[in-house]
Amino acid sequence: MKRVAATIAKHLEGIINAVVLGATNAASESINARIQRVKRMASGFRNRERFRNAIYFHLGGLDLDPATHTRS
């Protein structure tokens, strides 16, 4: 119990901020999960550049059908 109390006391400011602001790391965890899925699908990459390119391709939000856009 003393250890739990010490841990809470040590992180009290952050705990209060998270509760008051409703801040979570859900968005970053979601992005990380999507990156890990890309990594599993590829079964390994030859180098970091190809892995980075795959992440940009799958998570970049690119429109792969530009014909749907009209010119202004």
From TrEMBL:
Chain coiled-coil ranges: none
Domain Transposase IS204/IS1001/IS1096/IS1165 DDE residue range list: 1-55
InterPro entries: Transpos_ISL3, Transposase_DDE
Source organism superkingdom: Bacteria
Stated name of the protein: Transposase IS204/IS1001/IS1096/IS1165 DDE domain-containing protein
Organism for this UniProt entry: Engelhardtia mirabilis
